Amino acid sequence: EAVIEAAVRAAAKAAELIDLTQHSGVHPRIGALDVLPLVPIRGVTMEECVELAKLAGRRIAEEVGIPVYLYERAATRPDRIDLAEVRRSQFEKLRDEIETDPRRYPDFGQPRIHPTAGAMAVGARMPLIACNVNLATDDLAIARRIARAVRGRDGGLRYVKALGLELRNRRCVQVSMNLVNYEATPIFRVFEMIRLEAERYGVAIVGCEVIGLIPQAALNDTAEHYLRLENYSPDIILENRLQAALAVTGIGIGDRDAESHSPLHSVEPLHSVEPKDLTLDAFAREVASISPTLAGGSAAAYAGSLAAALGAMVCRVAGGQHPAFADDFSRVLEQLEQICSDLRLAVREEAEARINVLDAIALPRGNEAERLARINAIEEATKSAIAIPLRVVQNSSESLELLHELTEMGTGASLTDIAAGAQLASAALTASACTILSQLILGSDEDLSQARRQELRDSMKRGREIAAEIESLFFSVYPL
Q1: Helix (H), strand (E) at residue 388
Q2: What is the pLDDT of residues 117-126, one digit of tens each?
Q3: Which residue of 252, 304, 332, 370 is most buried, as measured by CB atoms within 10 A?
Q4: What is the side-by-side strand order in the sheet with 160-167?
Q5: How far apart are CA 298 and CA 287, in angstroms?
């Protein structure tokens, strides 16, 4: 919500300050705030970014009066996936086309350009690298020919968009590029192709510049390529190893005694492994490592997903044996599968939220401004971190209710699996409550803390009652 609000305000401020009728330049543009991309970095999926892009676009059109085109992953039409196609007419021509050509009607807003702020392209995409290569010549034709050779739409490298531009103040030209998928088309491959093309014209490369931010992985790939590293992995980067160790031991980010944690350091973390990709064996090893990625909250979510999975299995087995309850089994199965899916997702989200909290704790606090910023960051990260285990508590509570319902639907032969599921769900509920309580002490919102504690008390009380009923039923059939 905060990201979308910021986007809408940025669009409004750009419309207030920038008048495109008084603007000129060499780079294509259709609006004062020309492009608004939503990029998944951590804790969010591309699909969620697509939905956020649509929400932002609709609000900007309605509240700011700027027509919006959706592009890249959020595009509603194939011809608008490519940003270059969206702004091919630029501001000056789009004023006429948007009103007369149905193909240029916006996705949101009226087919009428904002008189001074133009239009906007809003989308969802991977991290983009804006990279320029400057050439030792003032011949613009050479830069344009090289740009045509490397860009994807003209048969070059698929994920490269390139233009040849003139830098009059430096008396040279440049190949200005957007690398839209640095994993599939890495920087070094683009750079080498430009170098080879430039050699054809007897031109050298003056330098390469990055505009904005660049993912660390892109630089790592470049170093690996040019240094011909044979043993490269993220593990060999000193800072990566230190960050993982410091986040757990507390060195530099808290007051805990590092030496008291040293016996745990014999287990090496599985760096750069996504929780969603872990096998059961890898998951257990990652939990046992010094890495801060997975901990009790993720383990609780995993246990909760297994509880729901056991219930789903019971529905499938018993559903075919008791046709009188077929509709009930189908309903419970659907709910349990949804819970199972959500809890598996929570395994990864809980790990990411944990890292966000550790990052906030690690912020500098050398002066009053830094201390206040750190406190606010911890507060926000903690609120987000609490939301995920709270979801695990709610899902586990619902699993227990559904498992209890299964005991009343002729599932005697599956009672063992129901009882096992109830114990796992109860454990997931309690373990998640522990995670929440440990996070609450980091925050300063006492009202929120009290509300969460009451919610946990109610959930744990009801959960233990259901687990005890199922356990009592099991031991009445299979006595100790």
Answers
A1: helix 368-406
A2: 999 999 999 8
A3: 304
A4: 160-167, 172-179, 129-135, 205-211
A5: 9
The candidate with the shortest Cα–Cα distance to 274, out of 266, 283, 261, 262, is 283
Give one word for 212, left, alpha or beta, with left for phi > 0 and alpha for psi -120 to 50: left
- Is residue 261 annotated as a catalytic residue, yes or no? no
Three-class SS state of 36: strand
Question: And the tokens for 38?
Answer: 């939503």
Which value, to the nearest 10 degrees, does the dihedral of the CA atoms of residues 339, 450, 293, 180 take? 70
Residue 53's identity, in one-letter code, is: A
Distances (CA, A) of 229 to 139, 215, 219, 225, 237: 37, 19, 13, 7, 12
Stretch among 172-181, 345-354, 463-472 having the lowest mean pLDDT: 345-354
Phi then psi dihedrals of residue 209, to 5 deg: -130, 145
Q: Quote the CA–CA distance of 333 and 414 in Å, as a whole number.
A: 15
Task: Kindly list the distances between the CA atom of residue 361 and the CA atoms of 169, 196, 377, 434, 446, in Å, as whole numbers in the listed order.
Answer: 45, 48, 8, 20, 20
Confidence band (pLDDT; 50, 70, 90) for 156? very high
How is residue 398 written in tokens?
């619902």
> CA–CA distance from 155 to each of 122, 132, 145, 147, 149 (Å)?
27, 20, 13, 11, 7
Residue 238's identity, in one-letter code, is L
Residues 6+ apart with CB under 8 A from 187: 129, 131, 179, 218, 219, 221, 222
Report residue 174: phi and psi, to 5°: -140, 155
* Both tokens assigned to 452: 């969460």
- Both tokens of residue 246? 């410091």
In this structure, what token pair is assigned to residue 225?
């390529």
Cα separation, 403 vs 410, in Å, equals: 12
- Cα–Cα dist 17/380, whole Å: 31
Eight-state DSSP code of residue 408? T
Global pTM? 0.46
Q: 3-state SS of the chain: helix, strand, coil percent to 5?
A: 65, 10, 25
388 is written with which tokens?
């995920």
Distance CA 291, CA 247 (A): 8
Instruction: Kindly report, residue by residue over 286-311, the tens digit of the pLDDT.
Output: 677 665 566 777 888 889 889 998 98
For 67-71, 276-280, 407-411, 420-424, which range has the lowest pLDDT when averaged over its residues?
276-280
Instruction: Assess contact for 462 and 397: CB atoms under 8 A.
Output: yes
**What is the DSSP annotation of 238-288?**
HHHHHHHHHHHH-TTTSS--GGGGGGGGGSPP-TT--GGG--HHHHHHHHH
**Closest by CA position to 403, among listed 307, 480, 261:** 307
